[in-house]
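Design request, tokens follow.
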């Protein structure tokens, strides 16, 4: 996490940021930091056959056209993990922004501490 106290002197990083080429599309993907009653955080491993297979990530997914981020996250958590939660249980935490070769990823990240059901990998992902 970057805080004001760990930024380099002058308040900016030396490394230049890549600029998006003209016409690059932005893909919005939402993710959840699920924290259980014991303080454990759930991460999932991308299954074989998917891009970046084997990497660990917070659960979530892409928005459908016209879908709000919170609505998409509730849907994705139900589809991927078989858990139910309400939008009111999601609190905005942070966001990530990353430029890939062919698109710009913008990812709002939410935290949730309350849901119904036991998470399980319905898409073949390890938890």
């Amino acid at each position: 996490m970057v805080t004001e106290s760990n930024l380099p002197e002058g308040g900016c990083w030396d490394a230049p940021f890549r600029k998006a080429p003209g016409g690059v599309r932005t893909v919005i993907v939402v993710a959840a930091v699920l924290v259980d009653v014991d303080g454990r955080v759930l991460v999932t491993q991308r299954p074989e056959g998917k891009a970046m297979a084997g990497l660990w990530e917070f659960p979530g997914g892409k928005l459908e056209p016209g879908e709000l981020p919170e609505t998409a996250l509730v849907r994705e958590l139900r589809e991927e993990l078989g858990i139910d939660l309400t939008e009111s249980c999601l609190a905005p935490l942070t966001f990530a922004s990353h430029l890939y070769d062919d698109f710009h990823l913008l990812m709002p990240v939410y935290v949730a501490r309350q849901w119904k059901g036991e998470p399980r990998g319905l898409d073949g992902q390890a938890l």
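Comment from the thread starter after seeing the answer: thanks! Residues 5 and 113 are 28 Å apart (CA to CA).
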